[in-house]
Amino acid sequence: MEKVILITGASRGIGREIAEKLAQKGYQVIANYNKSEEKAQELKKEYSNIDIYKADVSKRQEVQGMVKYIIDKYKKIDVLINNAGISISGLFTEATDEEWNKIINNNLYSVFCTTQEVLSNMIMRKKGCIINISSIWGLVGSSCETIYSVAKAGVDGMTKSLAKELGPSNIRVNSIAPGIIDTDMNANYTVEEIEEIKEEIPLERIGKKTDISKCVEWLIDDEYTTTSASDIPEQYELVAEPDNKEGKMAKEQIVVTYYYQIKKRPYIVNYLEKDTEKVIHTAKKGDELV
Ligand code: NAP
């Protein structure tokens, strides 16, 4: 029987692209989704070897139901691709506990939980491949996406530790850390912001979903690969250097906050009111620091 592959978060974006590419190669794919029922149904209609399953992977019981369904029907899971994720950006100082829990549960707990549920089958068969989609932000950090970066760094830590723990059971564990990829996740960037981001990328283009699916194909395909515990960073060159500066907007309005210079771009500079520390202005490119 052909390889059975579970992809979490496969209704849209990178996960969907991976599902389609792997289905075209003849694998049996189970495309997990949560909210995008219609999009998942489209996939099922288009590919006879794509099965779909609705489960919120941040909830243990739903993950258990999904894994049981797959094992009952296909008897095994050869490859698990932990792709589902969400991003919420904002100032760290304004982040709520609710946001923390939501981001950590959807990006990190989901990987812990899904991997645990799938592992008993892989360990029993002494065979398996786990690919986690982390993010470049987990490696280099990201202003205004601290919690997301924490979650993704956690995914990378889990990847490396599990690779050591599971290597003796012939299970390979790797992660792919994409830079910015053209999906709904980045839909809220303006055209100008996208242009600025491009300036920071050596190839001066936003990544494509196929950049990631190709990498997944390689990790799955090569029967002889011994790759494990890798973090494969995809197209980036972001080196964030914290550079605290003092700015003055007008009399009495002085602030010190986190001024990150990513290449030539001030990433975020907030001007706070001297006494209240209320944010009175977030600097834009071209604003002058006095
Ligand atoms: P996307 O276009 O927003 O798609 C997210 C997918 O995840 C959707 O299919 C969504 O399913 C699913 N999902 C989210 N929460 C879920 C949950 N609790 N249970 C099940 N499915 C869930 O995002 P994307 O850009 O393809 O991102 C995919 C992965 O790549 C994420 O882990 C993301 O962090 C990572 N990544 C993306 C970029 C980028 O620039 N795009 C860069 C680095 C890393 P429903 O719609 O059905 O709910």
Bound ligands: NADP nicotinamide-adenine-dinucleotide phosphate
Strand order of the largest sheet: 3-2-1-4-5-6-7
SSE class: alpha/beta
Q: What is the CA–CA distance across the termini?
A: 68 Å
Helix content: 25-40%
List the total number of helices.
8
- Unreliable sequence segments: 236-268
What is the subunit arrangement here?
Answer: single chain
Gyration radius, in Å: 21 Å
Overall number of strands: 14
Helix and strand element order? EHEHEHEHEHHEHHEEEEEEEE
**Which range does the strand content fall in?**
15-25%
Main sheet: strands, sense, barrel:
7 strands, parallel
Mean pLDDT: 83
Query: Which descriptor suits the 3D outline?
Result: globular
Label this structure with key terms.
290 residues; alpha/beta; seven-stranded parallel sheet; three-stranded antiparallel sheet; 8 helices; 14 strands; binds NADP nicotinamide-adenine-dinucleotide phosphate
